[in-house]
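User: Predict the complex.
Assistant: Input components as received:
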Amino acid sequence: MPDRRDKGVYRSRLARCQEVMSKRGLDALFLAPGANMYYLSGFLEEASERLLTLIVPQTGEPFFIVPELYEEQVRSSSWVENLVSWKDSRDPKAALSAAMKQTPNRYQAIGVDSRMWSRFLLMLLAVAPDARFEDAASVMNDLRIRKAPEEVELLERSAEIADAAFSEMLKECREGIREKEVATEIVHQLRRLGADGIAFEPVASSGPNAALPHYRSGDRKLQRGDLVVLDFGCLYRGYNSDITRTVAIGSSDDEKKKVHSIVRSAQEEACQRAAEGMEAQSLDGVAREIIEDAGYGRFFIHRTGHGIGLEIHEEPYIVAGNSVKLAEGMAFSVEPGIYVPGQYGVRIEDIVTMEAGKARRLNKCTRELMIL
Amino acid sequence: MPDRRDKGVYRSRLARCQEVMSKRGLDALFLAPGANMYYLSGFLEEASERLLTLIVPQTGEPFFIVPELYEEQVRSSSWVENLVSWKDSRDPKAALSAAMKQTPNRYQAIGVDSRMWSRFLLMLLAVAPDARFEDAASVMNDLRIRKAPEEVELLERSAEIADAAFSEMLKECREGIREKEVATEIVHQLRRLGADGIAFEPVASSGPNAALPHYRSGDRKLQRGDLVVLDFGCLYRGYNSDITRTVAIGSSDDEKKKVHSIVRSAQEEACQRAAEGMEAQSLDGVAREIIEDAGYGRFFIHRTGHGIGLEIHEEPYIVAGNSVKLAEGMAFSVEPGIYVPGQYGVRIEDIVTMEAGKARRLNKCTRELMIL
């Protein structure tokens, strides 16, 4: 992320934002702590029960409504100088109401951060009952879907940390260790290697648990013959990484080897064929067709990928029905999988960025079936 | 959390929920992944961009709208049997709309999870433009503010893990180590000792950084004479812990010792005087008065505490303006602090539960100023 004193980057992001707002007829955006606020202001914070919002009018300067005890942190990390602060002992709705009245023309059409807690949108609805509200994603996704070179650099650094953590973690990943211990080791390695935090609670799912695509980890001990799905990522200066590899413990039977190889082909082919101008749904089709042709179509029960950046899941989603065209600067995962209920699961995932018309992989770890 | 087969606990929670809904005139609650969904259904999951909601009608059975790839996980962890699933390639709004039409009478008054992403509330507003929406906190806080004995047990276990991690972490906390390394060690110890994850990114703020109450950690190395604020907690079966201690590196001057002792007295006194029937704001006053009388009132810039349970911050907030009366089963933090900008900060925090009319501390680590 640019330094707060590097106002130029933020000024140009703001200008593009206000341009898109004007096209969409939005008078103001109300952004919540998280990706959108960070992207435009340089202030990174988690959502909380205290009202903290960045208000971006269609013209003029953005301003914060901020709990008093965050004031100094906002001032020291954001280029945005206008702050309205409120005390813990007061109702934040008053601050919101006052902010709305500061503007010469009341806002009529308001874009609300997708991830703003409903608690705050309900406050906004109460304070501005006649306004029209829509998802600010219509503006913010437009801005954020194509990454600038300085963003790709941070995604790359984040991916490098994940790759390095994968190598380190393999030393601990063996028969008899519990899934949870593997997850703990992953988190430790990510942080030790420079991550600011984890992108999500790691998946270390073994044996039949690996057939549940969103299972995380539990008390099960890794057993000889298991396939283990390892899916994790970290945060680096706000940017996420996300990698999945499937390894075998001790040995692997022919069926599992075959299924791993099908998933690997599907993943490889999708990475190879991703091209400027291709629709996201066509890329989903590339991976899906290979798995369907191999007879496992009904076991590939999720989309092929998701965009990644300041959020772990963002546009472009690589999914049937999404006609967004792949373009320079887009970053997304390619992660087909096969899940045989009650038996095993396989998934392989890399993050790619679109560069010079093609997909470049940010993750370099081997995709071969490693037998540990 | 009760086992999913222990339907009795969930049935009685549901009955109480529907009773409160009836009093408040709410036809249905739409709950998001997180504390509320877990409390009523036993299914624990993080918020994501895929629509996943538990719908609780005022009478009759609750049901889920769930992305297809979560279906098996919901079935295996929740007692709620009614699921409407939707495919990744479809618009979830259709599922939402269909669910609304399933009911003989359309919902007119809807309680929305405080933390549901605005993206989904906007969908609801589009699907049910004539309905009245309010914060479901009006119902859920009522249910969750007083913890049942099985919940206090989990809070206690969560606090024990945090206490044990504090002791382990002290071994690494010394002159020359970076704040970030301290934070990494805290996370590792919490997980190693049985935590399912962290409650929030730890605070390990040293020297002048400790004067920023929501600073986390950075590259600064701990220096002789520093005060270091260590504030962290973990998740254990959904329940949060949260502890703060302030330690000194190598030595401490008289002013810092004095300030530490003022904060310690304020914290001690507030824990002692918390009593059944006392208003939350009066307890805030107890801690505040001691710090004000010592001449540091303007440096105590946040509330005295927050409730804790399935959320790290929930009711009751121990803050001016909150007239909620302390009652059996309530659990909250007591955490006064003094922050001298640019110089140093001190905070001491324990979680207490109201039992037999008084506050019982769940955290047992020493509150003396440790010089490391």
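Chain A touches chain B through 53 residues (CB under 8 Å).
Let me know if you want any component modeled separately.
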